[in-house]
Task: inverse folding
């Protein structure tokens, strides 16, 4: 298929338009999507950091509570058994304090004062149970010396607080806390900062309760993860995956979120963080932020890694909407670009087509088609140039024709008399003969020779001869019909072709008139020139059928007339 | 030459020819057969399975199990009809025997048993392996691999290896002893320490003494662990002198890898040890093939892979941590698992004797 300039131009323009709209749309969308994603990731990370901060504040508050009691003189006095009489009162007071604290802190399961003596026997213990907060006494008190939160805390200097790793509490008789994820926060009790350690105060924190409080303000759709320093889930949206290690199984954060390996490896890292997009097996892709929290001020057995995740679909929802809008805009602009391209192409090619039509239809002498020469642009200039060119061509053709006509005349006419010359005469004779042969017609030739011409020419000069010849030409021409031809064969010889002449008398009559006309004097420079003529007549088809023979017959008859005394006409004699 | 002698010779010739033929055509003997195996990770690695398939011509369908419970479910699901052979420990084996899910095995059809250490050949001395069936004793499993629960001690604190588990109670090591937190093993340990004849079968009158013994242990230890890595951390961090190694050599290797100068000893009371055996499931389709399988795994290749790849001990050579005279107390089913666990939970939680024994 041949593509016209309009189609090609239109296609190119449309392509450029669609490409421009598409590329602008795509890059706009990509950039915006990246920005939206980054903003969503930043929000997620910020939420996680806020949560970690809250966790740190929560634990700091618990640590303050623990220290408050551990550093209270009454705790040390009680453990030192300084005054047996006041022992019971002291225990009651401490228990009351514990009860108040448990009542105001729903995330506390249990508070205890543990003695370093008697294998870590609990001296004061307050538990939360279904009915509320209860004090545990007598033989229900247990020996806890073999638990890490006891033997680790007893090693600590005063003023420091121990935070255990998060574990399921399997201690029998722990009431509400039994079998629940918990965290022990403990501080050693000393009478003086440098004195021997007498015991410790422990608060059991309800891990789920703590996080239920923390996560209460989270926007819906966010999912909370908590792991220990090894990556074992402590809190997971699917409760079956939390504390899997307690059941002899393994469910760790690096499986669904491999990027967290970096966080797990970074043991000394202070609150390292990362955002990752992952596709946990059997789930839709999620964006998740993780922050590793190391409690610098606390003597923590383990770090926490806290994470929040959000379905990727939710995060990119906005950008998907943006993508839809961008697509519609791009399509709209593309359609517009195509339309504009068509219009533009047509606007450009219509005058061009007009010019093409005009140039194609150009012919010398024809009026030609209208050109868009009124336009002021390049097309107008082109049209005007073509118009100028057309006019030039027209003018040149005219002058050429003029010259052609003059040349033709020169070639076929006698320059002196203006009569057809021998060439033209022979042409016409051939035509007349051909016509006569077809139609069984007739014609006659009158061969005329001027008498005394040579004498006049020699005596009076060429001008006189010329005048003589011209006068003879004019007079002979006036004698005949328009269909007859008078020609000058050369010198003083003329010939007349009488087409259709058959009647001898009529021919003789014409010959007589010719003799009369030639006999009339001619005035030249005041001189009267007298001449006359001798005429030989030949007829077709009686005398000859060919042109040359016919002329020769007439010539021969003319000689006979001349030799017969001039001023007469002789018919050719049959051979 | 008497007729009798000649017929004897003829008989032995027939046996010899049959033996050669069975050797030559062993590849075709079970061709097309399928052996359905239930085993623990590392018991039958792919190369071991392949070499058996080449040798026997049978195809092996290996199912790997990861807990006693899943083993029980798979075997009992179809009355033992879904498998041919399984690896099970001596204590667990008892309920399969009681449920009739396993059938006797004939050591005489397994030439490899003759290369086992003497204590693994005396099946009757391993509790639970031989039961009387139809008035005659019948063996129900062939020992394959085991792990002892010895004592790990810090060589710098012990000039000589502790000889007895009573070292765990030695007040000189108070606060520098680690023990395992688990009801079944703890009571067995206490029973051994008390010198009771049957550590897995406490008499009613012995419970109180065992509880007291365990409370005494609690008061002497630094703490109790459940996971091997936990034990290693505590051991290193607190300068522990002595540990009851519930995970045996695994803990020893971990400690040594961490740079500890530690030794491993089997106490004279007998180290508790689990013993995994091959047993034939009741629905086994081709017992010849099963016996051939067991024989294959008692070969040098499979058995040495247990040591190299799994850090376990095999039944062909001594593990190097105790001589042939060392006493091993093969774990057996205890008299009442849930009672042991219940009492242990109380002891571990810190209850005193009266409360532990309370109903």
Result:
């Amino acid at each position: 298929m041949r593509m016209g300039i309009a189609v090609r131009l239109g296609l190119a323009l449309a392509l450029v338009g669609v490409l421009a709209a598409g590329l602008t749309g795509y890059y706009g969308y990509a950039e915006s999507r990246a920005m939206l994603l980054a903003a969503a990731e930043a929000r997620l990370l910020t939420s996680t950091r806020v949560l970690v901060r809250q966790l740190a504040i929560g634990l700091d508050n618990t640590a303050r509570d623990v220290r408050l009691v551990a550093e209270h003189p009454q705790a040390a006095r009680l453990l030192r058994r300084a005054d047996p009489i006041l022992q019971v009162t002291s225990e009651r007071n401490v228990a009351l304090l514990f009860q108040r604290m448990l009542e105001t802190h729903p995330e506390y399961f249990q508070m205890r004062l543990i003695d370093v003596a008697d294998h870590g026997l609990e001296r004061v213990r307050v538990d939360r149970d279904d009915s509320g907060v209860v004090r545990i006494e007598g033989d229900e008190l247990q020996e806890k010396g073999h638990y890490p939160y006891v033997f680790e805390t007893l090693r600590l200097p005063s003023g420091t607080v121990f935070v255990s790793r998060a574990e399921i509490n399997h201690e029998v008789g722990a009431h509400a806390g039994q079998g629940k994820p918990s965290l022990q926060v403990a501080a050693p009790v000393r009478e003086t900062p440098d004195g021997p350690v007498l015991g410790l105060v422990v608060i059991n924190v309800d891990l789920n309760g703590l996080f239920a409080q923390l996560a209460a303000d989270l926007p819906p759709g966010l999912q909370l993860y908590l792991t220990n320093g090894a990556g074992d889930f402590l809190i997971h949206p699917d409760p079956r995956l939390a504390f899997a290690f307690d059941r002899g199984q393994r469910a760790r954060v690096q499986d669904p979120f491999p990027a967290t390996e970096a966080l797990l490896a970074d043991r000394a890292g202070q609150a390292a963080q990362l955002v990752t997009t992952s596709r946990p097996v059997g789930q839709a892709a999620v964006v998740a932020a993780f922050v590793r929290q190391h409690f610098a001020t606390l003597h923590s057995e383990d770090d926490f890694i806290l994470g929040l995740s959000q379905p990727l679909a939710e995060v990119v929802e906005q950008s998907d909407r943006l993508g839809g809008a961008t697509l519609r805009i791009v399509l709209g602009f593309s359609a517009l670009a195509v339309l504009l391209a068509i219009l533009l192409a047509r606007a450009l090619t219509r005058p061009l087509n007009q010019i093409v039509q005009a140039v194609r239809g150009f012919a010398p002498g024809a009026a030609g088609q209208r050109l868009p020469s009124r336009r002021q642009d390049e097309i107008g200039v082109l049209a005007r140039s073509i118009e100028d060119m057309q006019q030039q061509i027209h003018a040149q053709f005219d002058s050429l024709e003029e010259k052609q006509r003059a040349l033709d005349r020169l070639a076929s006419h006698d320059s002196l008399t203006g009569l057809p010359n021998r060439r033209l005469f022979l042409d016409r004779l051939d035509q007349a003969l051909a016509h006569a042969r077809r139609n069984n017609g007739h014609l006659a030739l009158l061969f005329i020779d001027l008498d005394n011409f040579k004498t006049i020419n020699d005596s009076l000069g060429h001008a006189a001869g010329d005048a003589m010849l011209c006068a003879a030409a004019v007079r002979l021409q006036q004698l005949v019909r328009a269909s007859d031809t008078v020609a000058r064969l050369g010198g003083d010889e003329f010939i007349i072709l009488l087409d259709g002449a058959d009647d001898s008398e009529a021919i003789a009559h014409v010959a007589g008139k010719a003799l009369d006309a030639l006999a009339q004097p001619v005035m030249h420079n005041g001189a009267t020139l007298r001449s006359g003529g001798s005429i030989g007549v030949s007829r077709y088809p009686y005398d000859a059928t060919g042109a040359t023979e016919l002329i020769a017959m007439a010539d021969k008859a003319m000689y006979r007339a001349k030799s017969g005394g001039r001023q007469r006409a002789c018919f050719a004699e049959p051979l | 030459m008497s007729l009798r002698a000649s017929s004897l010779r003829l008989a032995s010739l027939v046996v010899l020819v049959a033996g050669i033929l069975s050797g030559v055509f062993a590849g075709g003997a079970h061709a097309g057969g399928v052996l359905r195996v239930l085993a623990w990770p590392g018991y039958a690695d792919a190369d071991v399975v392949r070499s058996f398939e080449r040798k026997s011509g049978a195809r092996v369908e290996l199912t790997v199990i990861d807990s006693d419970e899943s083993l029980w479910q798979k075997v009992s699901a179809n009355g033992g009809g879904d498998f041919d052979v399984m690896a099970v420990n001596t204590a667990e084996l008892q309920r399969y025997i009681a449920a009739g899910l396993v059938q006797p095995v004939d050591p005489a059809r397994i030439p490899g048993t003759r290369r086992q250490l003497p204590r693994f050949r005396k099946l009757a001395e391993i509790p639970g392996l031989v039961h009387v069936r139809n008035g005659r004793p019948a063996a129900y499993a062939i020992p394959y691999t085991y792990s002892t629960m010895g004592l790990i001690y810090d060589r710098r604190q012990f000039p000589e290896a502790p000889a007895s588990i009573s070292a765990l109670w030695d007040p000189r090591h108070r606060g520098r002893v680690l023990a395992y937190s688990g009801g079944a093993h703890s009571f067995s340990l206490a029973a051994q320490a008390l010198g009771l004849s049957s550590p897995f079968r406490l008499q009613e009158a012995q419970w109180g003494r065992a509880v007291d013994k365990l409370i005494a242990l609690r008061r002497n230890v630094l703490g109790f662990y459940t996971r091997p890595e936990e034990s290693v951390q505590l051991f290193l961090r607190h300068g522990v002198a002595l540990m009851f190694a519930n995970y045996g050599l695994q803990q020893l290797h971990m400690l040594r890898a961490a740079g500890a100068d530690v030794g491993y000893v089997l106490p004279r009371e007998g180290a508790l040890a689990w013993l995994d055996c091959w047993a034939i499931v009741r629905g086994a389709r081709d017992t010849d093939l099963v016996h051939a399988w067991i024989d294959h795994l008692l070969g040098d290749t499979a058995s040495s892979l247990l040591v190299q790849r799994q850090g376990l001990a095999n039944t062909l050579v001594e593990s190097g941590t105790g001589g042939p005279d060392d006493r091993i107390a093969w774990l057996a089913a205890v008299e009442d698992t849930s009672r042991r666990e219940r009492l242990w939970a109380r002891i571990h939680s810190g209850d005193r004797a009266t409360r532990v024994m309370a109903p």
Q: What stands out?
A: The CA atoms of residues 409 and 420 of chain A lie 9 Å apart. The longest strand of chain A covers residues 181-190. Residues 5-70 of chain A form the longest helix (66 residues).
